[in-house]
Prior knowledge:
This protein has helices at 30-42, 56-67, 74-79, 122-140, 145-150, 152-162, 173-176, 309-312, and strands spanning 4-8, 14-19, 93-95, 101-107, 110-116, 163-164, 167-168, 230-243, 249-263, 270-273, 278-280, 293-295, 297-300, 304-305, 314-317, 322-332, 339-347, 355-363, 377-379, 402-404, 409-411. The chain has 412 residues and is an alpha+beta fold. A five-stranded antiparallel β-sheet has the order 2-1-5-4-3, with helices on both faces. Strands 8-9-16-13 form a four-stranded antiparallel β-sheet, covered by helices on one side. A three-stranded antiparallel β-sheet has the order 10-15-14. Helix 4 crosses helix 6. The radius of gyration is 25 Å and the shape is globular.
Amino acid sequence: MISNFFVLSPRGDTIITKTYRTRPNVGAHERSHLEAFFRRIKFWDDASTPAVALSGDDQDLMEGGESSIPASGMEDDEKKSKNSRQKVDAPPVFIMPDGLSYLHVKRNGLIFGCSTSRNVSPTTVIEILSKIAKVFKDYCGTLSEEAIRKNFILLYELLDEMMDYGYPQVTQTENLKAFVYNEPILVSHVPSTGNMINPKTASASAVHKPIIPSVTANGGKKQNNNQKNEIFVDILERLNVLFSANGYLLNSTIDGCIQMKSYLAGNPELRLALNEDLIIGKNTQTNPNYGSVVLDDINFNACVNLSEFEHGRTLSFYPPDGEFVVLNYRLTGEFRAPFRIFPSIEETPGEPNKIEINIHVRAEMPDNHFGANVCIEIPLPKNTVAASCNIVSNGASNVTAEYNSAERKILW
């Protein structure tokens, strides 16, 4: 199934590599193949594929950009077409000139990838790579380049148990405990950038500890006499919102999940009570009451017992080791978005090759809430030469805006 597995750093250095199948005259050039793979995904652009489909907005931008270029500058623009391409993310699956299919996922800046010469299911392999990254994080506590380098013996032992001749065997964190004997070396977690104003939103450092007893960097046992029975619960939501030019909401969806990480002693049964007015499916015959929550669909982890969910909206489960998702849900329809955007684009009088873009962002959230580490990306036409930014801030702190010429966008 998998011929070669590897983990690359953000700089392209090979941190971990394991070969399951070899081909004649290929093993000696394995390093050069990984370097070529990294360059391919690092500098992937529109020229990497024979044809690129443009959406309606992209076509409008291109047409508008072509109409604003003088005839005398067309030749120069054609000569610089290679430099004017926008940088795009590489697809998770592609074929390299060596004839192998390469698949990869990115986690915390690290690249978990593999190569195969077989006609395998891409979704299956990507799920395996995601599982490997999850197990590495559970056993190391934090997923970083330093943690992997210091725990490479443990991680190679995990790979030997998880994969056999390129085929997945055991991918559950709790099932691997019986076969793994090395202890992780504890690495301090690198805190995320950004000043958190509300201390209640700061993440606890205990969530980054390994699920098995660890040792310090100098080889001593990690002593923790105040070991607590803890469980961490996160509600993660991704909002996709489409606004009109006037700021009105056109389309909106929410993809969310309830994620947990358990450090409870023993194997206790947990009960999670949801909103009693929760309704699944908008096509049901039940008339929703005022204040009820209507979800389009919902799916649960395999460890969840749903015997009390229909009449009491209560979940019972035995939490597995490590980080896991209890349930996923999806919601479409109108809801109050945390931000509202009001854009306007005007041509500069007397300067046909210059436009002025005004972006107004208004936060529509309660006064006791705030948005932290908010970043707004403003894509510009591909023939943009330069851009200048002026910020008018009302109460927000540490506000910056700059033009990224390589990717043709403004980062606000």
